[in-house]
Amino acid sequence: MQKPATALRLGALLVALLPALSQAQTPADSVRSYVEAARSFAGNDHAFVFGQLCETPIKAVNAAAVTEKVPAALPIIDAAREWYAEPAKVFDDLYFLGQTAFSVWALRTPEGIILVDAIFDYSVEAEVVDGLRKLGIDPAEIRYVIISHAHGDHSGGAAFLQKLGAKIVMSEVDWQLYENSNAKEKATRDIVATDGFELTLGGMTVKTYLTPGHTHGTISTLLPVHDNGTAHVAAIWGGTLFNFRDAPDDPRDLRLRDYAQSSVHFQAMTAIAGADVILSNHTAYDGSTVKLPLLAQRKAGSPHPYVIGQDAVNRYLKVAESCAIAARIAEASGP
Q: Would you identify the CATH topology of the domain 79-319?
């Protein structure tokens, strides 16, 4: 089996070579080629994330607009708290504990719960703690919280959950970003995730990979899940948009390069693991705004809306890769 570090170097080489394939083309032709490649990878099932990531290059070359989109958020069910969403059981051992637009995923093992992300400080108690209670689960079961990246919409509740006894997991770079943030209350360092880091609890192993781009220390995660006893692997792409917080020593061009390379790296890891479920920390990016309502109406023996197959997982990540390259070329070539 290829080691993650080797796969990352291979991914970097592949991405470095991709623009060379279009040297005979004008920059606009190359942008259009990558946009249309991304559109093809997206199909109908990943059209929303394609529209979000390829928005700038689509406009740059006047490519066809995206028409197939899912709702941008789950329906509002609480007028006083428009962000509130009900908790839901998604697999035998995986639960949605997020908001209308932001997700928390809870993997329940025989020895406790591993969360992926902590949403905002104002919503974490209502969505995660009270959400677990609504599902008949004791919040004291929470053992670990993997923070995909240190932006406040995913790390804001970390301090609250740490006070309940959970250990917080972040990459070294994003621990630094988090510690230097203006968050009102901050968790203290527990665990530093590395590329290929494994977290085993109750006989279930979660794997994390460094996928820098959205932040310099973004983590993407592989989770073992089960549907009526049948094993599946869920992949969580840790940071999606190109809304980089650029600085003079942190140019956008290099962030887009890193993002594309990270996508190739995670493609390799999801292929090795046989991942057939794609999840996101935003409800629209993985189609949860459609899939959660479908799941609530699912009949015995019918397909699981989140189980999309290994090819579809790969295509999702190819959309991310292709749009990052298209954006990089478009922005480098100017108006």
A: Metallo-beta-lactamase; Chain A (3.60.15)
